[in-house]
Amino acid sequence: MQPSELSLVAAADAIRQRRLSPVELVDSVLDRVERVEPRLGAYVSVAAGQARRSARQAEREAAAGRFRGPLHGIPMALKDLIDVAGAPTTASSRVRAGDRAADHDSTVAARLAAAGAVLVGKTHTHEFAYGLTTPQTRNAWNRERVAGGSSGGSAVAVAAGTATFALGTDTGGSIRVPAALNGVVGLKPTYGLVPRHGVTSLSWSLDHVGPITRTVADAAAVLAVLAGHDPRDPASLPHTPGDPRPAAYPDATGDTDLTGLRVGVPRNHYFDHVDPQVEAAVRHAVGRLETLGARLVEVEIPMTRYLRATQWGLMVPEATAYHERTLRTVPELYGADVRVLLEAGELMTAGDYLRAQRARTLMRREWARMLERVDVIAAPTVPTTAVPADRQTVTWSDGTVESVSDAYVRLSAPANITGVPALSVPVGHDGAGMPIGMQLLGHPLGEAVLLRVGHAYERTAPARELAPVA
């Protein structure tokens, strides 16, 4: 096994025990980048020289017994919405071509650097995170299929071994969707748990930052570094004395006993208009949870008829407000799909936006009531696997036609509207070999439970390998 194939937890353990050098690990990842990146297009930019300098410094510190933190010497990638001092933040858009480099690190970049992580590069997003396919990037399992979005570059980098972990952002599923489509783990934390200062916004009331990793234990390790209050983010959750959240996440030695845990299985919405192979794989995974001791509880998802209107009613006007100046001065620099959405936001009224806000308030209340009956909900992450890159719609067995973007956002948007945490875990492949993801949703600040359940499932499944990039 090459070092680039190691999970974060395994690599970090090897570095701490001096069985692996940060230089060896970073060199292995950069060698992998050189071999497969031209075929995948995951990165906007690769900082190979800086990464090697950081790795040598990490090696000197390790040799002296000084470790900066739990991610010491671990290669990472950051979605190119996340500011890194000295590097431009392009948002994969011509609108920002020629923009000067960021003056300061974002909060998350600073926390990861302080914990010892080594930046390999910045990854592609669907332009300004406003889409679910990331057209610049190809799926790690099949280059003819979409990568998913908007954090497609980050998910592909992790799946292909060109980063040991990465960060993405999630406004309507943009961490979980590409994670599911590329066979890796994606975590959208509770709204406000991870600060967004220094991260380009799509929709400030829906935006989240979180990790994309190879294993659930890896996601737990990254979240422990990211979580915590930052007064520069108005939505950041306050820190209270003795707050256990950053230390509450399980490690790779956790057991698989889920006795007494209540797993909600939706009777509506999450299994409606879902590919039969996706449904079968997810229901099989839910059955695995039951064999580990969990009790399955059927639940009714509330207010489903309002989900799409609420998601778009919040996101579209907020995105348009953010882009107001450049939309008027350089509209021709936006991609056609993004420009149409931004212009649509100018047609929405204040009343439309306020109705969406009211619907969200009611939805959060009803979800809180539903979650009183269960500890987690288990469901598909997306209704179908990665579609061919040139496909615009999905046709279901009853003749219903749905745009690809609407299909991919449909099952992930509820967690953004309500702010509850959601974890996508790989649970198999379809007949064409494309990955399938199961989504676990929990109580606000219930990440520890989600990670415990995801980790327990993961330990019953075969070990996952890197995507076979061809």
From TrEMBL:
InterPro entries: Amidase, Amidase_CS, Amidase_dom, AS_sf. Residues 231-255 are annotated as: Disordered. It comes from the Bacteria. Coiled coil: none annotated. Pfam families: Amidase. Signal peptide: none annotated. Residues 24-451 form the Amidase domain. One of its GO terms (molecular function) is catalytic activity. This is Amidase. It comes from Streptomyces chartreusis.
